[in-house]
Amino acid sequence: MLKLVFVDMDGTFLNSAKKITPENLAAMDLAAQKGVQFVPCTGRNVNGIPEQMVSHPSVNYAVCCNGALVCDVRTGSVLHEVGIDKETVRALYRQVEDLPVTFDIFADSKVYTLANRWHYLDEMPVDEASRAQLKSIRVPFDGALDQLLVACGTVCRVNVFFMTGEAKSQVWAAVDADASLRRASSLPCNVEVTDVSAHKGAGLRWLCAHLGVDVADTVAFGDASNDVTMLEAAGDGVAMANALPEAVAAANHATSSCDDSGVARYLEPILRAL
Predict the structure, then answer these.
(1) Given CA atoms 227, 228, 229, 235 in this order, what sign does their dihedral have?
(2) For a 10 Å CB count at each end of the chain, is N or C smaller?
(3) What is the DSSP letter of 257?
């Protein structure tokens, strides 16, 4: 019996214009009628989840920051958080600070970008809808990284956008050299860094245990490498038609693309049968 639907945001539940399609919204309405909960399971922090989704009656919880943060969106409370040691963050920054990259800190339900690296957000190779969305949820911090780490709370994710292939290789090597860290990506020009124990699959399993839901009663939808653990952990992992090969390989089934409301097309017959 389906109880929870875990959905990645970008490239999955949101279309290329970063919008919820009418068909996907109708699927949320139907889920609410059937007592099935939607759970955003995203690399974004809480402030990056669309208000249209957060306020929907089918949504009570969110798994954010690639599984490092689980929140009750109704109360705004943090239920579970896996942080990165701040000295580890400092050490990583020292290895990449001379490269053409951003260095974004996910903390306090926000995303902080060092102000002296803000210009890279206008230079990175992404489509304009993605650029506008990424900038809209970021806060420039006018100071040094050490000042930011003193001022902010628990760091649950670091994001780096790189401008060149050489920078990418150096950033990946720096992350891989630290066994306490895990990396994933949702875009060709970024790396998403969490504690090694924090990933979407772990967040899915934690929330299921918290709610007393059998993992077998879940379905998850994703398209990118940061969705692989979620697709593997769910009772039914579903890859979008626009998914990367690693996401397809991790999934049990496939559906149509994010621009063709693939989540709704897959879910609607299941929900109607409940």
Answers:
(1) positive
(2) N
(3) -
Q: Say how many residues make up the chain.
A: 274
Give me the half-sphere count of Cα atoms (radius 13 Å) on the Cβ side of residue 97: 11
CA distance 230 to 15: 20
CB of 120 closer than 8 Å to CB of 161: yes
Q: φ, ψ for residue 239 (rounded to 5)?
A: -95, 140
Backbone angles phi, psi at 43, to 5 degrees: -75, -15
| pLDDT per residue as tens, the chain (274 positions) | 999 999 999 999 999 999 999 999 999 999 999 999 999 999 999 999 999 999 999 999 999 999 999 999 999 999 999 999 999 999 999 999 999 999 999 999 999 999 999 999 999 999 999 999 999 999 999 999 999 999 999 999 999 999 999 999 999 999 999 999 999 988 899 999 999 999 999 999 999 999 999 999 999 999 999 999 999 999 999 999 999 999 999 999 999 999 999 999 999 999 999 9
CA distances from 214 to 59, 217, 266 (A): 18, 5, 21
Calpha distance 171→225 (Å, rounded) = 17
First to last CA, the chain: 8
Spatial separation of the C-alpha atoms in residues 204 and 118, rounded to whole Å: 32
Sign of the CA dihedral running 23, 257, 194, 142:
negative
The owner of tokens 């149509």 is: 256
pTM across the whole model: 0.93
